[in-house]
Amino acid sequence: MFPLKDNIPTDRFPLVTVALVIANVIMYFVFQRGGIDFSGSGLNQADLVHYGAIPYELTHPGSHCDLVASGAVACEGQAGVSGTASSQLPTWLTVLTSMFTHGGLLHLAGNMLFLWIFGNNVEDSMHPVAFLVFYLLGGLAALALQVAIDPSSTVPTLGASGAIAGVLGGYALLYPRARVLTVIFIIFFFTLIEVPALFVLGLWFATQVLFGAMDLTDPTGGGGGVAYFAHIGGFVVGLALIKLFARRGRNPAYVRGYR
Question: Residue 258's pLDDT is what?
Answer without folding.
Answer: 37
